[in-house]
Amino acid sequence: MSDSRATDGGEVRRTGIDRYRHRIRTSTLRAGPALGAIRFLKRRKRLLTATQAGLGIAWMAVFLLAPLLYVLTLSFWQRGPGGVVVQELTLGNYHEILLQNVAIFGLEVSNIYLIILWQSLKIGLLTTVATLVLGYIPGYFLGRTESRYRTILLLLVILPFWVPLIIRYYAWILVLGNQGMATAILGLFGLESGGFLYSELAVVTGLVQVLLPFMILPIYNSVNKIDDEYVESAKTMGASPLRAFYEVTLPLSLPGISAGSILVFILAVGSFMAPALLGGPAQTMVANLITQTFGQSFDWPLASAMAMVYLVVLFALITVFNRFVGLEEVFGE
Amino acid sequence: MSHVEVEHVTKRFDDVVAVDDVSFTAEEGEFVSLLGPSGCGKTTTLRMIAGLEMPTEGTIRIGGEDVTDRPASEREIGMVFQHYALFPHKTVGENVGFPLKMRDVPTDDRRERVAEVLERVHLPDVMDRSPEELSGGQQQRVALARALVFEPDVLLMDEPLSALDRVLREQMRVEVQRIQREFDITTIYVTHDQAEAFAMSDRVAVLDDGHLSQVGRPLDIYENPNSEFVATFIGESTKLSGTVAERDGRSVLETDAGVAFEIPATDVDPGDRLTVYLRAEKLGISPEARETGTAFPAEVTTTNYLGDTTQFFCTLADGTEVVVAEQGFTSLEQYDAGDTVSVQIAPEDIVVARGDGTASERHAVDESVA
Predict the structure, then answer these.
(1) What stretch(es) of chain B map to CATH 3.40.50.300?
(2) What ipTM score was computed for the predicted complex, to two decimals?
(3) Whose CB among A44, B136, B215, B351 lies 3.0–4.6 Å from B205's, allowing a Cys bridge?
(4) Candidates 3.40.50.300, 1.10.150.130, 3.20.20.70, 3.10.180.10; correct CATH number of B4-228?
């Protein structure tokens, strides 16, 4: 207020920033209709809450649910000549995906979609197991340490997010390629290798690197919430540090383990860039297949059906997981 | 040889001294409380006995064995934590059976002993429930059962009743005492609540800012506090300093606050400086201002009727506040704020501080205890 001075007429002469503040204030006060709406909502607490939640719900409905419903509809239509969508109902897309070339009892599954879906789930599972093993230790450490560097270490965990995904995968190409660092290092020990690129190992390695923070952070969060008293009381009752971990810390950190596993599994199964850049044709995953069907084959109805089957399978898997672990633990009360 | 011996134990965290040269003992089956305000080092002391903190200096012996360097899991101590620390992912039975499981007791045997100990803490039929379904008092019993089921050498309790409401706390006080007597187990109990320590303990150790101020029976500590800290921490008292004088062959304290009263005939000479504490409940009050050997005038500022007692807040001429607590007082209407009254004190009820009641005297006290 130091920059407003009273003039002779008793009026306040405003200078600098204060003039802008004044202008904004008066223009806000004159915005009667807008203020009226806000006042109306303030007087009705429940309506206000509904509006706040409604914004998010409306966004999801318009930009997620509506396109999904469109994809669902599309999956029952047909591809006409030249990729034109013919709006005639058919179950042909699903028949092609699920039942063609299938001999399940003879185990001769030559259906390319099912093979690739299975491949995706397998890579998802491998990635989840690897991130769990590699992520639990730092997550546990961050959750229990009283180091003053904890904040900095946590920042380091999420720091890779600043590097665009595509650059990280290209970096892995440099490491794993046949002229790459991995080959060079093995060469120092006299070991020959033609590089590790275009293999399942390369895809999983890349995915683990990218998805590790999604495992570390939930585990950190749930280990951090475990009261020291639990571990200490286990020790006073005769538990060795290892036994106390197995009996107390590990089960109490289960919510973090399942939250991290679900996140990593869903993201890994649906990954597109890792198999495209680090994998070979044999590592094609479901997202790549769907993209190809949409983009190169111009078969939107078939691609939509693939997307729906993928969605249902993933949903079913999470439901089964929920049966055994309990998702309510993942999302709190 | 005492059952638990804490000898010259010091604990430093970086450059903070949490516990400074504390020594005390507990006999077999004895109930000893560590009493003091928060931050006085009582919990750290308990945690060192448990093996959850390692002392920087000093020795801890349990049953004659030096356990100073032994981890908690090898000490055979039962501990009840402030928030009970019952495992939320295990049933009550699994919680109580945990120490037995750690000792590889077979499952059937374990179940039997768990049932038996739950019976003894008066909490049958909860074995298969989750601890989170139980009330605070029931959780307390489960925590006790879990600490006692493996017949440890010592029971340690860290403010176990502080999470309960007042009525339940007083009931559990009796219950903890009953269980302790029944199991006849040496117990070290941490509390900041003087009433709790006095009601339950055989002996109380008062801690102040990492130092041990006094150890003794509740009665000794109440009647003969050996430092200003103990005198003011236990109960409510008024501190008065002055010079000793002699009147008619009796020792009288002429206080700096302007009043004088008779003090017990201890080894003081006229002219000595002395500090005394007047316990609120040992003071009497009467409506007319008198100045005799055992009474002095004061002005009433506030009266608080509390039902079982009535508190009178009075001030002396120089503004020093004197608190008087009368038992079950009914003639409250005789006293109004601003009235001048007389406050009586019998010489034998006066607590005389040894030394001048400042910090320098505390070390003398520590040495006398050690």
Answers:
(1) 4-228
(2) 0.80
(3) B215
(4) 3.40.50.300
